[in-house]
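Collaborator request, handled under Task 6.
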Amino acid sequence: MLVWERQEVQEVPRSLDPVREFIRAFNERDLDGFVAVLDPEVELHSKKGLRKGREAARLWATRAPGGVQQTIELEELHEDWTESGGGSAVALIKRSWCWDEDGAAAGEDEMAWLFELHDHKVRSWRPFEDRSEALHAGGFDHGVGAQ
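C-alpha cells returned to the collaborator:
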C-alpha cells in the first residue's frame, strides 16, 4: 500500500497515474483527457445517479461556464496495487468553490473519492462526504486516521 501526501497533480506522468490525471482533466475541463483516462465500462456514482460508459461520463464532467465552479485539490492519496494498473485508491480531497466571473471564493469542503482501476484506467469513481467511510470502503482504514 502506498500513501502520498499533498503532491501537485501536474508533476506526475499522465499515462502512469489515472487518479491524478482524472483530477487534472476535471479541473482543467479537458474533456478529451478526462475520457481518455476512463475504462470503456466506467461507472461514475454521482449524487445524481449512476453514469455508465465514457459518453455518459463526458456529459457528467461537462460544466457550463459561469456561476459557481469547483476545483479539486488532492491532499492525500492511498493506493493499493495501482502500480500494476489495477487495484483501488482513495483520494482525500479539498473541493474549492469560486465564482467563475471574478474568481471570488464561494466555499470549500473536504471529502474523499474512491477509485477502482483496471488496465491503468478508472473503472469506477465514487464520492464520499465522510473521509473515514471512503477509507473503510477502499480497505485503507487499518491504522490510518481520517482527517
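The cover message to the collaborator said: "Residues 7-12 have pLDDT under 50 and may be disordered. The domain at 2-137 is CATH 3.10.450.50 (Nuclear Transport Factor 2; Chain: A,). Please let us know whether this matches your experimental observations."
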